[in-house]
Design a protein that fits this description.
The chain is globular and about 35 Å long. 78% of the residues lie in helices and 0% in strands. The chain has ten helices and no strands. The chain is mostly helical and 143 residues long. The longest helix is centred in the N-terminal third of the chain and has 15 residues.
Length: 143
């Protein structure tokens, strides 16, 4: 449909993020394929900060469920996290949302195992070092 439109993908990810704040709806979204669609937006718009911020904020909300984490693991979300953090290392908003996604993934022991073998923790430290005055990054990194 509109997978090539950065604006449509941004709005779609924002919509999913807002809906995923409801714990009952979070699992329904994932069963409907939200994780795959968001990761496709991440892959199709790697250079667009607006899409990346919206997509990672949606993943951050979806990751608040052990069931959803199992799906995100199958989708290799950890690889996309690291790629995004490297690609957008100078964008504070992208770093805030990727750090937030990592924080929510790590709340679950399964999420901790998922990220253990990636460089995600290292890039959280890089973000904290790169943006020492960003309260949001510091808070996400230390949570």
């Amino acid at each position: 449909a509109h997978t090539s439109s950065q604006l449509v993908q941004t709005y779609a990810c924002q919509c999913i993020m807002h809906l995923a704040r409801d714990s009952a709806y979070r699992r329904k979204l994932m069963r409907a394929g939200a994780g795959s669609l968001i990761l496709r937006a991440i892959d199709n718009h790697k250079g667009n900060c607006m899409v990346q911020v919206a997509a990672w904020s949606a993943i951050r909300e979806l990751a608040n469920s052990s069931t959803n984490l199992r799906v995100l693991k199958k989708l290799q979300v950890e690889k996309r996290l690291v790629e995004t953090m490297v690609t957008h290392k100078f964008n504070e908003d992208v770093q805030i949302n990727t750090c937030g996604a990592i924080k929510n993934i790590c709340v679950d022991p399964g999420g901790q195992l998922l990220l253990m073998h990636s460089d995600a923790a290292y890039y959280v430290l890089v973000a904290m070092d790169s943006f020492p005055k960003s309260q949001k990054i510091q808070a996400q990194g230390c949570a």
